[in-house]
Specification:
The protein is built from 13 helices and ten strands. The chain folds into two domains: 275 residues, Rossmann fold, CATH 3.40.50.1240; 117 residues, 3-Layer(aba) Sandwich (Rossmann fold), CATH 3.40.50. It is globular. With 430 residues, the chain is α+β, with helices and mostly antiparallel strands. Strands 1, 2, 5, 6, 7, 8, 9 and 10 form an eight-stranded mixed sheet that branches. Strands 3-4 form a two-stranded antiparallel ribbon. Helix 3 packs across helix 4 and helix 7 packs across helix 9.
Length: 430
């Protein structure tokens, strides 16, 4: 069951065409559909991570003013600014009108956690100030679109999952830990008080499987969570003597403490088999949306989402990392480590039509505010723009004034090729 008057308005207007003129770019491309998948904004550590970090470091971590895991006020404001910027870009391109669009022109759907629902609201408030739009979300704690990796229909084959994990580890978890030992020692220096009996970094890494069939690496998890929390502290605007206990005063220094955070994703999330099981449903909905209104759309296909110019999905870094892995897409932006997904980082699918030929193209890109832009709540205007990287999703892509455009047919083949039909479930946004 979805929430809010917005949902009913969406249903009422679903079949209405856009009531505004689209604006061709200088070289003749019209933006006619956008799907965005955004991570939530800045939050404190989750309750389980807070307990873990306190236990392994034996020291008090900074106090946050909102419940653990919830979007902060700073995070909300940063997401509003990203929404304002994206709204400006989409208006300039003619995808959305000035003022308030009607409900037929957008679908905004969030993962059912406070931080994602609040981020979706912030993005809407930034894109459409004063319009009163609200995101939709399912009742309960699990949405098959975002939490498929926790649900039976996308269950993992343990042997296949472990094969992928050990390949990523380089064959041995012990050898992997040995390679990363210098980074563990660096985190010990940062997080443990001198002379204290600090447990962090003294335990061997162990691959564990939980009751839902998902895998984690005990020992690595603490260091990975630690790096993410340091980045969140910096992004939140905590005094520099509080960020990483005074040991990270620049974005580059923060990122240097996130090597184990990246390792966790390399070993557990960025595994093609695991990613395909965890995000096939999400990728399928994106693909169905991008095909709407073209010859590639299947008539009466079950579970087809509403045909809207703008679909905004607000989720988690796990969701985006799965999609990135399925696409074979990577990025290195600013001071962030490779493939890092900052707060409100957004994977964008932009469909363009060439006015001269009527041919469709797809731009896939990742866009995110820099660490300092988030920390300082920088207005994204003029020279201050988000960081972004484009993906060549097919052969014969072309550089244009709007970015790297790839033929839609070939790009959709790339999008579809790693969708696992056995990891799909009937889905509806209504």
């Amino acid at each position: 069951m979805k929430t809010s008057l917005y949902a009913s308005l969406l249903l009422a207007g679903m079949l209405s065409p856009p009531a505004f003129a689209q604006t061709p770019s200088s070289d003749g491309y019209v933006l006619d559909k956008v799907v965005q998948v955004s991570r939530h904004g800045v939050r404190p550590p989750t309750e389980s991570n807070e307990k873990l970090l306190t236990s392994v470091t034996q020291r008090q971590w900074p106090t946050w003013l909102v419940p653990l895991g919830n979007l902060t006020g700073h995070g909300y404001t940063g997401a509003v600014e990203m929404g304002r910027y994206r709204g400006q870009v989409l208006r300039t391109a003619g995808l959305i009108p000035k003022g308030c669009p009607d409900a037929s022109q957008l679908l905004v759907h969030a993962s059912p956690l406070q931080r994602t629902k609040a981020t979706a609201q912030a993005l809407l408030d930034g894109m459409f100030p004063g319009c009163g739009f609200q995101p939709t979300y399912v009742a309960g704690k699990q949405d098959a679109l975002f939490q498929a990796n926790e649900m039976p229909f996308a269950a993992l084959d343990p042997d296949k999952a472990k094969a992928g994990i050990f390949k990523a580890l380089g064959g041995s978890i012990e050898a992997a830990q040995a390679r990363y030992k210098p980074y563990e020692e660096k985190l010990r220096e940062v997080a443990c008080l001198p002379g204290a009996d600090c447990p962090y970094g003294k335990q061997p890494w162990v691959l564990e499987e939980n009751a839902k069939g998902r895998f984690s690496i005990k020992g690595l998890s603490a260091g990975a969570n630690m790096g993410e929390v340091f980045r969140l502290e910096y992004s939140q605007g905590l005094p520099l003597d509080k960020v990483a206990f005074g040991n990270a005063r620049t974005p580059a220094e923060v990122s240097s403490l996130m090597v184990l955070t990246k390792a966790k994703y390399d070993f557990l999330n960025d595994i093609p088999y695991i990613a395909s099981r965890g995000a096939s449903e999400l990728m399928n909905q994106i693909s169905l949306e991008l095909k709407q209104g073209t010859s590639f759309a299947k008539k009466d296909a079950p579970g087809t989402p509403p045909d809207v110019p703008l679909m905004l999905l607000v989720a988690h870094d796990t969701n985006i990392s799965y999609l990135r892995t399925m696409l074979g897409f990577g990025w290195k932006l600013g001071d962030y480590l490779e493939n890092n997904i900052p707060p409100v980082g957004t994977l964008q699918f932009e469909r363009y039509r060439e006015v001269k030929t009527g041919e469709y193209f797809l731009r896939i890109a990742f866009e995110a505010q820099s660490m300092d832009q988030i920390r300082n709540l920088t207005r994204l205007d003029g020279a201050e723009k988000p960081l972004k990287g484009d993906f060549a999703s097919a052969k014969d892509c072309r550089k244009t004034s709007v970015g790297l455009l790839c033929p839609l047919k070939e790009a959709l083949l790339k999008v579809d090729q790693n969708i696992d039909p056995t990891a799909l479930t009937p889905y509806s946004f209504q």
